[in-house]
């Protein structure tokens, strides 16, 4: 075919075009270009080719139009005639086949035509691009025009569209005659293509043809489609991303005044949501457009757009929105050196910015300050020097004033902006102004009460240091920042160290003159890891430099440890991460070990620091296997024992343990007895974080040296000693359990229990049995903490659960936990640690299917396994509930200070111990006060409640949930009653006790709400929630109320934050008493007989008081002693607002809770408490259910209840004669209910009364 194409070129133009069309564009394209460009202007084919090309294009277009109008069925069929008979199935099939064949032929014919047109368009393009211009543009124009004019017909063929567009594009670029006629279809196509395909090359093509858009009449109505495409370019990410795209959008502003308005409106709508890159693109576009457009469009940009942006930047409602607007204005601010821009910015901003800096709204002041800092210095370039100086002084005056603004956010911007201005314009600012401004920053802003302001001050000074001309004055002022290294905010301390790091790298500064070395070392020793690491980076060139010999570097580090032992040890912790090499650290480790083993020249604290530092270095070195081997060779068993003997403190001994666990040296059996002292001398461990870290190190060492079993045996024996002490001291029954045959022998400890046992608190006990028991109990508390902690890591948990002494430890903890619970009100040293360990061990034993002989249960029978799991958990729950029952029974007596009249042996033992405890001062001479008893009780009951809820959530407990609910209700009732009682007795909790007690109350609230959720989730119509769920919900709401009343609104607000996720459960539980009646259709009676007056919750009473206070500015004259003003219950009001939203969202729950509140009004009516009646009814009618919205019609239970209550209120109001105030309240209540009564139940109510 290609040879034929070449040969046809020598015959005629018609044969050449026909051959090319048959060959197709893809095959003929390479040859066509070469053949056409080979033609000369004098060749005969040069004139005939254009004529035949025009004819071929016209013929093909006519044929294409005919095929587009004609349908395949019309081509396939003759005019229809009535069938003589029904066609057979085969005939119908042949007809369908015929139609399909006709349609296929039709499509093929169209395809052939479009392929021919593709070739013709390409031939025309090659003629235009002929290097010798062999073809006349005038002869070629008719063919090109016909292709252009029919461009819209070929929308289904993208190749043909592209070829025609290329042809017209080249015609325009070549500036050939008649090019104006070839853009009306081409430009919309290219514009649409760029927006659809989203290719950069298409954007470049559109930009190259931009001048052609000037030929369009944008005032004509027919141009709307093109205008829409142009507006789409304004929000197209591709146009905003590319340079040509932004230039084209800016050029577009000059096409039409109306187009300018629409484009600016589109940009304005995108500002609130645009990304930074998009906003910066808009800034560039608007600035380019402002420079290029005529005066009319420029006025629209300035007055209609930029002035609005300035106003919006000042009055924006949010900081991100204001920042986005300023980013668009940045297109002009960054080009302020361009002629006319400075004048423009002054004209836009000056009338509003100075006034806005002094308004009352802090948000406006902040936005205006941001804008002023961006525009600084704001001046009129055409004004005189005196005017400019006066305006500059005004700006500095306002800036200095805003440094002392009452709003911290404004001060943050002011201090950062001041430092930025000083950095950028130091040379031109008068020295007096610099001195005044910078002195205020150093003297006032560094001591600001706001953390953010102080942080911004440090960051601003760091930025100011970037200007070398500021160094002379900063060298004098920087020592005033020294106190910031001890700031309470971590971020400020970190920023202060960053400042010192910057000063270290500036030759003219010495950082130790800003912050003394002693202060730096103290901070290194005590501060958080982030600060300590940065200080290490600061001083490592001085105390462990890499540019000196290893011996010199080690000597300097030893000097640091001798000067500040703890700081030197922490320095070694971060040395590797701050650039120290492993070989140098290995040498330093050897030096430390050598010095620790020759202690004659060192003090004990320095030796301890060397060991701690050696442990840090060892931790860094073991990451490399070769160094781990070297460390193991370096440290023999005898050497490790010497190191342990040299360690004088628990922290140093812990460090030796860490080294042993990291490198596992040989022959360290001699350390066992010494290390066991770390875990057995554990009095006060649960409250000592530092000791806890030391004990964990000992645990790791025990595990790595295979001494874990011996450790557990020793700890278990100590627990058994304490359990036996509980038996002898309080008469606690020792549990009976069977020991498997393999354990009939007495459990042996591998070592003797260390004789160095000391209590952490330093108490000295007498030789009496009670004092000895307290010592043993303190140790058992520490062991209990260890057992719970050992259950957290997987390796120690696995070892513990597989231990042969697991059952001994479990039953010993059981006895100690019983005494801890029952005796917590008598003995101030009782702790929750045994209870926490006992319950945690129960859960892990059950979850891991461990029997109490230390073996795993067989998994063959799932049902028996589940039964055993539930059995152990249920036994533990029963045991704990029995203990708490004894505690709560004796609680009222003990909390009130009255003697107990119990006669059983257990109580006698309790009384004996409590008398002994009461006669002995505890905790440095303080007595066991009511406040301490309350704190002890709350912590103990919280631990029990936590276990009940956890086991229930894990589906390990099969006990009666009603009993668990009853315990929770009794617990809450006990706490509330005692808080109320002690409030009258002026209960005064210490700050520490208050925080601890409140933390337990928050936890208890969460656990109780979880339990309530579990009970409600498992309820159904057949099995409704028990009454305890309703009681618990009321007690939890009372707890919030009394926390606000006794502890203040701050504590109550925190408790409400905890309660918020569980509020739907509380609301549902409030209505749980009446929801079953809702579904069963039983009649609801809401008299006081339904609600026990003595157990009526307190929160509805306060609710009623709040409602009455809202009804009038002056409260009732007979208010309760516990309620003064409604403002005191601001947190409780917030809770009520959340409850109202939940109730109004569900009419069924609203109906049930509404009956409960109506029952409360019935209680008030019987008690003659008319304030309660009016307050609750006002809450119902004004906030819960609105009569004007016709909401009562769906509340059947409330209407039934109202049918009974309303007549009682009327009767009571009529009977009151001597109490005018009470009668007035009842009449107000009647006025609230009367519209509902008249609308819904008036007739039925009267009929019922007549029948009675």
Automatic annotation (TrEMBL):
Feature: compositional bias, Basic residues = 85-95
Question: Among the record's GO biological process terms, what is one?
Answer: mitotic sister chromatid segregation
Name the SUPFAM superfamilies on file.
ARM repeat
Q: Name one Pfam family in it.
A: Condensin2nSMC
InterPro entries recorded for this chain? ARM-like, ARM-type_fold, Condensin2_G2
**Coiled coil stretches, renumbered:** none
Q: Where is the composition biased (Polar residues)?
A: 912-928
Q: Which GO terms describe its cellular component?
A: condensin complex; nucleus
**Region (Disordered) location:** 72-110, 892-928
- Gene3D superfamilies the record matches: Leucine-rich Repeat Variant
Recorded superkingdom = Eukaryota
Name this protein carries in UniProt = Condensin-2 complex subunit G2
Give the species this sequence originates from.
Answer: Escallonia rubra
């Amino acid at each position: 075919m290609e040879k034929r194409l070449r040969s046809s070129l020598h015959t005629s133009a018609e044969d050449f075009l026909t051959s090319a069309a048959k060959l197709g564009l893809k095959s003929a394209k390479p040859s066509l270009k070469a053949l056409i460009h080979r033609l000369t202007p004098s060749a005969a084919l040069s004139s005939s080719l254009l004529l035949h090309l025009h004819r071929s294009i016209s013929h093909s277009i006519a044929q294409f139009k005919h095929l587009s109008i004609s349908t395949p069925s019309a081509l396939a069929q003759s005019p229809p005639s009535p069938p003589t008979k029904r066609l057979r199935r085969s005939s119908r099939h042949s007809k369908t086949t015929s139609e399909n064949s006709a349609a296929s032929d039709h499509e093929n014919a169209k395809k052939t035509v479009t392929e021919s047109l593709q070739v013709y368009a390409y031939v025309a393009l090659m003629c235009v691009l002929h290097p010798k211009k062999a073809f006349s543009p005038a002869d070629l124009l008719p063919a090109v025009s016909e292709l252009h004019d029919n461009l819209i017909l070929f929308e289904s063929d993208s190749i043909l569209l592209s070829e025609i567009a290329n042809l017209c594009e080249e015609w325009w670029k070549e500036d050939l005659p008649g090019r104006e006629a070839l853009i009306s279809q081409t430009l919309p196509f290219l514009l649409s293509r760029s927006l659809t395909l989203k290719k950069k090359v298409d954007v470049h093509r559109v930009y190259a043809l931009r001048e052609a858009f000037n030929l369009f009449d944008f005032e004509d109505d027919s141009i709307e489609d093109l205008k829409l495409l142009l507006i789409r370019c304004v929000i197209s990410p591709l146009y905003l991303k590319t340079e040509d795209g932004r230039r084209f959008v800016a050029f577009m502003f000059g096409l039409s005044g109306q187009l300018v308005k629409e484009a600016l409106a589109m940009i304005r709508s995108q500002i609130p949501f645009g990304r930074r890159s998009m906003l910066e693109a808009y800034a560039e576009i608007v600035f380019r457009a402002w420079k290029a457009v005529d005066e009319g469009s420029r006025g629209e940009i300035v007055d209609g757009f930029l002035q609005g942006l300035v106003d919006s930047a000042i009055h924006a409602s949010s900081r991100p929105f204001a920042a986005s607007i300023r980013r668009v204005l940045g297109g002009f601010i960054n080009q302020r050196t361009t002629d006319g821009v400075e004048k423009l910015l002054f004209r836009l901003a000056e009338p509003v910015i100075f006034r806005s800096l002094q308004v009352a709204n802090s948000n406006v002041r902040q936005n205006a300050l941001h804008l002023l800092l961006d525009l600084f210095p704001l001046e009129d370039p055409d004004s005189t020097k005196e005017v400019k100086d006066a305006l500059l002084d005004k700006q500095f005056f306002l800036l200095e004033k805003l440094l002392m603004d009452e709003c911290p956010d404004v001060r943050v911007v002011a201090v950062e902006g001041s430092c930025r201005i000083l950095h950028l314009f130091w040379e031109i600012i008068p020295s007096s102004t610099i001195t005044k401004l910078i002195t205020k920053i150093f003297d006032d802003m560094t001591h600001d009460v706001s953390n953010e302001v102080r942080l911004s001050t440090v960051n601003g000074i760091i930025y100011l240091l970037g200007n070398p001309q500021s160094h002379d004055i900063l060298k004098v002022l920087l020592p005033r920042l020294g106190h910031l290294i001890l700031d309470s905010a971590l971020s400020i301390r970190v920023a202060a160290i960053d400042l010192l790091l910057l000063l270290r790298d500036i030759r003219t500064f010495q950082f130790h003159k800003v912050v003394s070395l002693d202060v730096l070392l103290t901070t290194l020793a005590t501060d958080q890891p982030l600060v300590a690491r940065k200080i290490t980076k600061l001083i490592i060139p001085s105390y462990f430099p890499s540019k000196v010999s290893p011996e010199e570097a080690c000597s300097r580090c030893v000097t640091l440890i001798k000067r500040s032992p703890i700081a030197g040890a922490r320095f070694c912790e971060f040395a590797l991460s701050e650039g120290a090499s492993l070989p140098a650290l290995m040498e330093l480790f050897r030096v430390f070990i050598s010095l620790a083993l020759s202690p004659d020249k060192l003090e004990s604290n320095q030796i301890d620091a060397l060991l701690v530092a050696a442990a840090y270095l060892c931790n860094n070195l073991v990451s490399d296997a070769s160094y781990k081997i070297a460390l193991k060779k370096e440290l023999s068993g005898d050497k490790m024992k010497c190191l342990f003997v040299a360690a004088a403190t628990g922290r140093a001994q812990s460090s030796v343990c860490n080294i042993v666990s990291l490198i596992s040296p040989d022959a360290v059996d001699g350390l066992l007895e010494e290390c066991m002292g770390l875990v057995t001398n554990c009095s006060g461990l649960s409250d000592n974080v530092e000791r806890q870290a030391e004990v964990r190190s000992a645990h790791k060492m025990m595990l790595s040296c295979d001494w874990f079993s011996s450790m557990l045996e020793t700890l278990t024996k100590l627990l058994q000693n304490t359990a036996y002490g509980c038996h002898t001291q309080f008469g606690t029954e020792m549990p009976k359990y069977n020991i498997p045959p393999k354990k009939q022998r007495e459990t042996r400890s591998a070592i003797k229990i260390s004789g160095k046992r000391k209590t952490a608190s330093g108490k000295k006990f007498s030789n009496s049995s009670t004092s000895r028991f307290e010592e043993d109990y303190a140790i058992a508390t520490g062991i209990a903490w260890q057992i719970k902690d050992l259950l957290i890591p997987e390796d120690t948990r696995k070892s513990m659960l597989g231990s042969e002494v697991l059952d001994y430890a479990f039953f010993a903890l059981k006895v100690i936990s019983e005494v801890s619970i029952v005796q917590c009100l008598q003995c101030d040293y009782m702790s929750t640690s045994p209870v926490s360990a006992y319950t945690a061990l129960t859960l892990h034993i059950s979850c891991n299917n461990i029997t109490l002989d230390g073996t795993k249960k067989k998994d063959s029978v799932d049902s028996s396994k589940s039964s055993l799991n539930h059995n152990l958990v249920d036994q533990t729950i029963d045991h704990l509930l029995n203990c708490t029952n004894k505690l709560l029974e004796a609680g009222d007596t003990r909390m009130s200070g009255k003697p107990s009249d119990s006669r059983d042996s257990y109580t006698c033992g309790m009384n004996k111990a409590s008398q002994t405890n009461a006669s002995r001062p505890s905790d440095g001479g303080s007595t066991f006060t009511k406040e301490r008893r309350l704190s002890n009780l709350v912590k103990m009951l919280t631990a029990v409640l936590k276990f009940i809820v956890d086991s229930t959530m894990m589906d390990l407990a099969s006990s009666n949930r009603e009993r668990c609910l009853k315990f929770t209700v009794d617990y809450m009732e006990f706490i509330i009653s005692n808080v109320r009682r002690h409030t009258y007795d002026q209960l005064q909790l210490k700050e520490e006790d208050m925080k601890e007690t409140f933390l337990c109350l928050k936890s208890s609230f969460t656990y109780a709400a979880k339990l309530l959720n579990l009970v409600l989730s498992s309820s159904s119509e057949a099995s409704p929630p028990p009454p305890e769920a309703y009681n618990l919900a009321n007690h939890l709401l009372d707890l919030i109320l009394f926390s606000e009343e006794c502890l203040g609104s701050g504590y109550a607000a925190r408790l409400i934050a905890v309660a918020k996720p569980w509020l739907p459960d509380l609301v549902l539980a409030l209505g749980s008493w009446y929801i079953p009646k809702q579904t069963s259709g039983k009649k609801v009676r809401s008299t006081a007989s339904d609600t026990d007056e003595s157990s009526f919750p307190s929160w509805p009473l306060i609710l009623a008081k709040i409602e009455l206070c809202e009804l009038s500015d002056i409260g009732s004259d007979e208010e309760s002693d516990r309620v003064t003003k409604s403002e005191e219950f601001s947190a409780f009001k917030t809770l009520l607002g959340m409850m109202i939203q939940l109730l109004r969202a569900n009419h069924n729950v609203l109906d049930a809770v509404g009956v409960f509140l109506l029952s409360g009004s019935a209680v008030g009516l019987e008690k003659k408490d008319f304030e309660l009646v009016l307050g609750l009814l006002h809450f119902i009618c004004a906030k819960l259910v609105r009569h004007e919205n016709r909401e009562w019609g769906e509340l059947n239970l409330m209407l039934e209840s109202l049918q009974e209550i309303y007549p009682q209120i009327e009767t009571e109001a009529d009977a009151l004669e001597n109490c005018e105030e009470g009668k007035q309240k009842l009449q107000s209540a009647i006025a609230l209910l009367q519209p509902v009564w008249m609308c819904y139940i008036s007739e039925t109510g009267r009929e019922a009364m007549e029948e009675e």
